[in-house]
Write a structure and sequence with these properties.
The complex is a heterodimer of chains A (473) and B (337). Chain A is of the alpha/beta class. Chain A contains 13 helices and 9 strands. Chain A has a 5-stranded parallel β-sheet with strand order 3-4-5-9-8, with helices on both faces. Chain A has a two-stranded antiparallel sheet with strand order 1-2. Chain A is globular, with a radius of gyration of 27 Å. In chain B, helix 10 links the parallel strand 10 and strand 11.
Chain lengths: 473, 337
Amino acid sequence: MKTSIIPRSSLRRVSRSLPRVTPRFPVSSIGVRFASSVSQRPGSEYVSFPGALKSAFTSDLKFALPSDHPTLPTYRIVDQDGNIVDQSFNQDLSDEEVIQLYKTMMTVSIMDVIMFDAQRQGRLSFYMVSAGEEALSVGSASILDKQDVVFCQYREQGVFAQRGFTLNDFMNQLFANKLDNGCGRNMPVHYGSKELNIVSGFYQSVCETTHLIGHQHTVSSPLATQIPQAAGAAYGLKMQRINDPTLPPRVVAVYFGEGAASEGDFHAALNIAATRSCPVVFICRNNGYAISTPTLEQYRGDGIASRGIGYGIDTIRVDGNDIWAVREVTKKAREMALQDGGKPILIEAMSYRVSHHSTSDDSFAYRARVEVEDWKRRDNPLSRLRKYMEMKGFWNEAKEKEARESIRRDVLKAFSQAEREKKPPIRSMFEDIYEELTPELKAQMKELRDHLEKYPDEYDLGQYEGGKSSLDL
Amino acid sequence: SPEVKNGTTKRMNLFQAINDALATALAEDENVLIFGEDVAFGGVFRCTMKLAEDFGAERVFNTPLTEQGIMGFGIGLAAEGMRPVAEIQFADYVYPAFDQLVNEAAKYRYREGKTGRSAGGLTVRMPCGGVGHGALYHSQSPESLFTHIPGLRVIMPRSPLQAKGLLLSAIRSNDPCVFMEPKILYRAAVEQVPTSPYTLPLSKAEILKEGENVTIISYGQPLYTCQAALQKAEQDLGISVELIDLRTVYPWDRETVFASVRKTGRCMVVHESMINAGVGAEVSAAIQADAETFLRLEAPVTRVAGWSIHMPLMFEKFIIPDVARIYDGIKNYAGLS
């Protein structure tokens, strides 16, 4: 005989009126009808399907072909020889300020060479240079307001340098010493700026402390993840200004390569930024290669710029080796991003990755040395600005030599200082997982401490600030 | 607090309690934003009903249909000091957002280090669990995938009262929280819920019923099944069972669990999601690894959970731990004493 150990009534109580599994579309009976309500007028020339308003009817069966569209042009102000080609251009900076920009580009470039070699000598674990992209990063960053927020991919040393990251800041991160903002947790080149100190405050007051200070979020290795984050951050800035109209208008700038633009996050970001009207400037560094993959294997459309239009985003392509063009385009983009309550803008900055992808890459395995040499000789953002400055008469060989030597000295000084510093306390490996150490983490910290006590000769604790005592609870 | 305890209450089901918590959060902090697929009209499970009308389309809005976009967008907001509450329509569809959750939200505070920034303001809500006919993609309980990620808090309430208090804690928490809502309870579970705001502590288990001979550890919907089974077992077998609701499945409340098992000497972990590498695996391993608790064990720790298979439409009732399987588990323990 079938017996039931289950009190049916108690089960019924739980399972009564199960929720219907609702399809992923709102059911039309819901009642609320939103603004995009459309209907077809009789005799209209245009289709009024809700998905494409103002699409004209046609009786011509014709596919839209990418080849029907001319390749989007590349805006430039100064040509490869330093001549001004856009006659409407006026130098908006004093000669001294231009020299400063040039020196920042030079600093990044000299630091790159030194650190690349240092990695080859085994003095740091990893490095990535940004040769060929100095104008793009320094130029765009020079337009951003101090209070704007920036997300980078990893090849934007110039952005950090331009926005106040010092040589010491770079070196402390690269050597992952105790002064590193990232507490020695990240690979080299994963910089983050400490412009602001958010007190890990509670709840409503958090953003009161963060509002007015622009900053650069710490670089993370996963490609393109920063792009939708930038859209969200921009929406946050917009909402903060709605909540407090005395705040200055701010934008978010986000950098990524043309390879990263193949990630799903790129698609998600541009679409969400457009639909939510986020004041964000997307800056794509199209340098021709993603590690070994040339753009021909990355996409078949007209670069990244052509996609912006598809998302309903105002877009421009610019010569990334021309710092003046990059500056003008970024200036205009920032202005536009703040119009109409905020909107996204896409900039595709064309350049050439002169260097290897990273210290773990030998790019001559997949491209000809002559191609690289050709780019270095023919067109290079530093030499282009140098030619411009020399033509204008405020720069010469002697100044060049002096600047080069003094920057080199500064880099080496910061290098050796950072290399000598102790590593962060071992304790910091357990911290910042959560706001507070959990009981589980405290127990593991103690376990590690006991272990180090037991096997003191197996580990080199002397290089860590405080040795094993930092693990004391 | 006494003013909540003595204050007014209202009969609410689970989705109404969630809705009430969200309305409370929106009202008390202008930095709270709610978004996801189809949340503006009230959500496919009604959890966001009227919120867009009451708090404005700038604060409660639909996103394009992109889970990775929703998560990335939420992280960016949180990193700028906002309190985003993102919704993933079904837990089954969280995987496109997995990279953003694992590599970004969970690691944000850690990699930022001294800058002090984090994605701690982020709360991600998602309906989960079996619903009788959800099959492969409307039934999943992926909590153990999240419990393997340092940096996230993973929470699952069992009832309307719990849901409101835990959700408000999650939204106020400065750690990113994954808030999983057993959708079978959205309408089924009804109880009196205080109308004023209150919070319940995260990472704190609750002893639902004290007992002497067996500890059952569970969370979410199976707690009801456990309750029915243990009532029957106590009546039939003359033993007494202690029932614990983990509430936060990671970081979980080890002390409460250990203390209970030290007392009873027998322990069973029950969950709906599959047994392999599930929450039960971690809880039972931790119990036997704790020297003091291990010495008090009188029987192996057992797990009653979903089989290691996908959720097939027609066989759900044979997968999810039911009263009979839990009853049988308790009975096996009774035979040992």
